[in-house]
C-alpha cells in the first residue's frame, strides 16, 4: 500500500494531470515530475502516456479522486489520443506544452506553481478567454513541462509582450464550457470536440478565403477568425450548415462543366474525403454528401465520400446524352425545346445545369422502350408517308427528334405516345352496314376530297370530324370517315360553300 503524500496539494481540474504531477514533485522533491513518479513506483513514460493504471496509482498516492485525474489526462495511443472518451488527432490535442498564456502564469505565482491548462492542449484554440489574449506558441512538438515552454519563448515577460489582445469568440467560450461539463443544449453535445472544431474551421476557411485556400498559408489569427466564422454557423445546426454550403457554391469560381466537389467545396471537401480517416468528421460528412447529391449529377453505383450512391437524384445534359446515346449538343437543343434549358444557352451554360430525375424520368422511360421511325408504320397500321406526315405535324411527337430539317436518322417515338393514338382509335365506334357504303379510309378521303393526312387525323382526334372504325383492332388504316362529314369539313377549311 502506497503512503499518501503530505502536505496535500489539491488538483486543479483546469490543468493536465502531468502539470499537477510536476507541481507536486517540485513541492516534495524540488525536481521535475519524473523523480516523484519514480518514488511512487511509476514509470514516467507510462504516466505521460496516460495509462489508466498509472493514473489510478498516482491518485491513491496523492489523495485525489482517480476519476478527477483521469478527466485531466490525455491518453496517448499508437496513432491518436483519447481525452474523456473522445478520439483526437495528435494535431488536435496533445498533453505536451505547445502554447501558453503568460498572463495566467503570472497569476499562478512562481514557476513551481505554474499550471499547464487543459484548454491550451487544443491545437486550434489560441485564445485565453480570461485575459482576451492570444496564447504564445512554442515548437509544434511541444515540451514536457510549462517551464521549458516559457524558456523556449524567451521568458515569461517576453512572452507577455508578444501576446495580443483579441476578441474571445463563441468557439472559445463553448470549449471552456464543454471542459467544465456544461451542456450547450444543442446538437454540438452529441459530437466530439474535435468534430465540432474541425467542421467549423474548414467551413469557415472556405467561406472566408475561398475554395483554393491552403490552410498552411494562413496565420494563426486568420485560422482563429475562420474557426469563429464557421462555428457561428455550425452551432446553429444542420439547416444553417446547408445554408453555408449554399453560399460556398455561389462563391465558387469553378465554371467548367466537369468541375467536381473539390472545386466547389475546397478544403472542406478535401478534409472529409481524404484527411478524416483517423478521426471521423461527424455529421458534417452526411450534410456535405447530401448537399453534393442535391446539386451535382451522380449516377447509381458511383462512390461519394466513401459511400456508394444508391439512386440517381439529378441528371445533367451530359448524363442524359450518355443515357439516351445522343450527342451532347443535340441533347442540349432538345432540352431547350422542352423548356428545361434556357433558349440560346451555350454548351458551357447548359452543361452546368442539372435536372431532378422526376422532371426527366419520363424522357428516360420513353427512351428505354422507344420505337424507331422505321417501325412506326407497322406499329400503328399506316404507311411510311402517313407516319412522316403525322410526325411532321406534331401529332406524333418524337422522343428524339431529327437533328436537321428533313433528317430522320435516329428519330424515335415513345411507345406510350403510339399506344395513346391507338387507344383513341380503339374508342371509335364500329361502322355498321348502312354506314359502310358512305365511309372512306383516310387515304381515300384525302384523294377524293383534298386535304392532307395530318389535317384529317387532327380533325378526327379533335372531334371536328366524326370517325368510325372499320374493324375491331385499333389501327390507323381502320379509321373511316363518312363522305358528308368530309365534304363539310373541307368546305369549312377552304371557305367554299359549293360542292367540292
UniProtKB/TrEMBL annotation:
The record's annotation in InterPro entries points to: TniQ
Q: What's the protein name?
A: TniQ domain-containing protein
Domain annotation TniQ: ranges: 9-133
Q: Name one Pfam family in it.
A: TniQ
> Could you read off the lineage of the organism from its UniProt record?
Bacteria, Pseudomonadati, Pseudomonadota, Alphaproteobacteria, Rhodobacterales
Amino acid at each position: 500500500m502506497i503512503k499518501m503524500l503530505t502536505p496535500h496539494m489539491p488538483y486543479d481540474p483546469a490543468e493536465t494531470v502531468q502539470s499537477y504531477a510536476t507541481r507536486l514533485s517540485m513541492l516534495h522533491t524540488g525536481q521535475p515530475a519524473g523523480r516523484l513518479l519514480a518514488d511512487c513506483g511509476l514509470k514516467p513514460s507510462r504516466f505521460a502516456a496516460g495509462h489508466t493504471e498509472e493514473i489510478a496509482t498516482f491518485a491513491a498516492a496523492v489523495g485525489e479522486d482517480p476519476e478527477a485525474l483521469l478527466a485531466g489526462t490525455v491518453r496517448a495511443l499508437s496513432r491518436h489520443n483519447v481525452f474523456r472518451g473522445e478520439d483526437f488527432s495528435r494535431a488536435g490535442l496533445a498533453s505536451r506544452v505547445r502554447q501558453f498564456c503568460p498572463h495566467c502564469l503570472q497569476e499562478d505565482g512562481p514557476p513551481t506553481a505554474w499550471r499547464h491548462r487543459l484548454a491550451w492542449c487544443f491545437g486550434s484554440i489560441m485564445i485565453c478567454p480570461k485575459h482576451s489574449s492570444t496564447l504564445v506558441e512554442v515548437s509544434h512538438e511541444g515540451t514536457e513541462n510549462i517551464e521549458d515552454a516559457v524558456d523556449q519563448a524567451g521568458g515569461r515577460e517576453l512572452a507577455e509582450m508578444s501576446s495580443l489582445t483579441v476578441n474571445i469568440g463563441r468557439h472559445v467560450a463553448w470549449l471552456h464550457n464543454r471542459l467544465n461539463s456544461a451542456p450547450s443544449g444543442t446538437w454540438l453535445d452529441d459530437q466530439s470536440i474535435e468534430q465540432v472544431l474541425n467542421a467549423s474551421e474548414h467551413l469557415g476557411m472556405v467561406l472566408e478565403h475561398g475554395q483554393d485556400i491552403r490552410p498552411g498559408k494562413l496565420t494563426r489569427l486568420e485560422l482563429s477568425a475562420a474557426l469563429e466564422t464557421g462555428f457561428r454557423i455550425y452551432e446553429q445546426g444542420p439547416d444553417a450548415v446547408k445554408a453555408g454550403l449554399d453560399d460556398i457554391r455561389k462563391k465558387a469560381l469553378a465554371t467548367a462543366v466537369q468541375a467536381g466537389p473539390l472545386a466547389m467545396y475546397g478544403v472542406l471537401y478535401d478534409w472529409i474525403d481524404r484527411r478524416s480517416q483517423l478521426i471521423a468528421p461527424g455529421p458534417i460528412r452526411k450534410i456535405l454528401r447530401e448537399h453534393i447529391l442535391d446539386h451535382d449529377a451522380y449516377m447509381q453505383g458511383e462512390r461519394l465520400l466513401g459511400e456508394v450512391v444508391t439512386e440517381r437524384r439529378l441528371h445533367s445534359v451530359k448524363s442524359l446524352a450518355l443515357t439516351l446515346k445522343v450527342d451532347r449538343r443535340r441533347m442540349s437543343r432538345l432540352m431547350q425545346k422542352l423548356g428545361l434549358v434556357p433558349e440560346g444557352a451555350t454548351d458551357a451554360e447548359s452543361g452546368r445545369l442539372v435536372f431532378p430525375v422526376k422532371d426527366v424520368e419520363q424522357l428516360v422511360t420513353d427512351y428505354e422502350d422507344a420505337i424507331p421511325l422505321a417501325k412506326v408504320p407497322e406499329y400503328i397500321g399506316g404507311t411510311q408517308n402517313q407516319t412522316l406526315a403525322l410526325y411532321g405535324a406534331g401529332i406524333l411527337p418524337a422522343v428524339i427528334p431529327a437533328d436537321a430539317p428533313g433528317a430522320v436518322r435516329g428519330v424515335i417515338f415513345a411507345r406510350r405516345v403510339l399506344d395513346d393514338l391507338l387507344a383513341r382509335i380503339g374508342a371509335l365506334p364500329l361502322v355498321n352496314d348502312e354506314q359502310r357504303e358512305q365511309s372512306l379510309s383516310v387515304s381515300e378521303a384525302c384523294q377524293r376530297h383534298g386535304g392532307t393526312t395530318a389535317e384529317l387525323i387532327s380533325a378526327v382526334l379533335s372531334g371536328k370530324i366524326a370517325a368510325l372504325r372499320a374493324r375491331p383492332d385499333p389501327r390507323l388504316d381502320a379509321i373511316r370517315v363518312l363522305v358528308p362529314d368530309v365534304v363539310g369539313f373541307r368546305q369549312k377549311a377552304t371557305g367554299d360553300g359549293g360542292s367540292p
